[in-house]
Known about the structure:
Layout: H1 3-28, E1 35-36, E2 39-40, H2 45-71
Antiparallel strand pairs: 1-2
Helix pairs in contact: 1-2
Amino acid sequence: MPLHRQLLQIAWPAFMAACAMEVLVFALVDPQDLYWSGQALALSRQAVYTAGFFAFWAISAAACAMAAMLGQRVE
């Protein structure tokens, strides 16, 4: 199977999972109420949403890649 197809098989489900996590987390959490080291974040809501989405996507992609790796046949 070509490498680009394998990457898409990891990236697409990870993207969908990140979308779902973004909706669930930020439906309950207001980015303006977040604190880091005892201080309020100095980022806009949109910046927190964006950073959160990419963090969720990276975590989901790692999980999908591990599942794909474990699902490969050993010959």
